[in-house]
From TrEMBL:
GO terms for biological process: translation. It comes from Parasutterella muris. Coiled coil: none annotated. HAMAP family: Ribosomal_uL29. InterPro entries: Ribosomal_protein_uL29, Ribosomal_uL29, Ribosomal_uL29_CS, Ribosomal_uL29_sf. Belongs to the universal ribosomal protein uL29 family. Keywords: Ribonucleoprotein, Ribosomal protein. This is Large ribosomal subunit protein uL29. One of its GO terms (molecular function) is structural constituent of ribosome. The gene is rpmC. GO terms for cellular component: cytosolic large ribosomal subunit.
């Protein structure tokens, strides 16, 4: 997800997105441990999306 799209979201939506990404990351890590994950780059993309969301949440909290 692009940072521009994330900045347009409110904090509640960002928190929901963060929870969804964390669940997806857990699922991907579980699949990797069972050698069922075919696209390993998804782990990296998910981790970066999580960082993006957390950064924007911190920026919004700092501007309050």
């Amino acid at each position: 997800m692009k940072a521009k799209d994330l900045r347009a979201m409110d904090e509640a939506a960002l928190n929901k997105e963060l929870q969804d990404l964390l669940k997806a990351q857990f699922t991907l890590r579980l699949q990797k441990s069972h050698q069922q994950l075919e696209n390993t780059s998804m782990i990296r993309k998910t981790r970066r999306d999580i960082a993006r969301v957390r950064t924007i949440l911190a920026q919004k909290a700092a501007t309050k």
